[in-house]
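Structure (tokenized):
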């Protein structure tokens, strides 16, 4: 079982804001558009353990594999409370992309301008450094243009590259706002 360095508290970003585009989720619970709470989220979420299927076999693999940077990226250490996604306006997470056989870090700006704040700059820098050290891809999506652009910050050359690769990553990412 994962050991988390934080609790979610009242944050519900990954279960509300994200667009979950994954077969394991769709097969279990159907569509999960961005901004719509997952039907398995407790109605009055105010503490850790908000997911009603957290410890059950019902929990889809996409949720099992989701690695929230604020919660548990070991390399990032214990981040200050202001880095929590509902406060910072940025969620950064890792999700496995089968076609690439790897889990890129996805950096998603939920509130316009959040990436330009000092917390946003710190998160971008941390992700870049983590990427360089661990040879994983970092993909950024901004709220500025409704989340439809993305930039590759850094990563191994063989993976980063082409517009076609970016287009396919855009289509393939397991969970993101659109
Ligand atoms: S985005 Fe991170 S901190 Fe927020 S609810 Fe999800 S796992 Fe918890
Ligand atoms: S199943 Fe649980 S962890 Fe997954 S989106 Fe729903 S509430 Fe969140």
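Design, position by position:
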């Amino acid at each position: 079982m994962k050991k988390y360095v934080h609790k979610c508290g009242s944050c519900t970003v990954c279960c509300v804001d994200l667009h979950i585009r994954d077969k394991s989720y769709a097969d279990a619970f159907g569509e999960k558009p961005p901004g719509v709470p997952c039907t398995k989220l407790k109605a009055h979420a105010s503490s850790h353990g908000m997911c009603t299927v957290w410890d059950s076999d019902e929990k889809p693999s996409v949720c099992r594999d989701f690695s929230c940077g604020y919660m548990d990226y070991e390399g990032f250490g214990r981040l200050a409370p202001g880095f929590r996604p509902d406060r910072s306006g940025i969620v950064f997470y890792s999700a496995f992309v089968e076609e690439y056989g790897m889990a890129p870090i996805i950096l998603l700006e939920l509130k316009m301008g959040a990436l330009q704040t000092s917390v946003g700059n710190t998160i971008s820098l941390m992700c870049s450094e983590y990427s360089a050290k661990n040879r994983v891809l970092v993909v950024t999506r901004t709220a500025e243009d409704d989340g439809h652009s993305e930039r590759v910050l850094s990563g191994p050359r063989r993976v980063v590259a082409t517009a076609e690769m970016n287009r396919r990553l855009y289509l393939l990412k397991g969970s993101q706002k659109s």
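Reviewer-requested clarification: The first helix runs from residue 13 to 16. The two ends are 31 Å apart (CA to CA).
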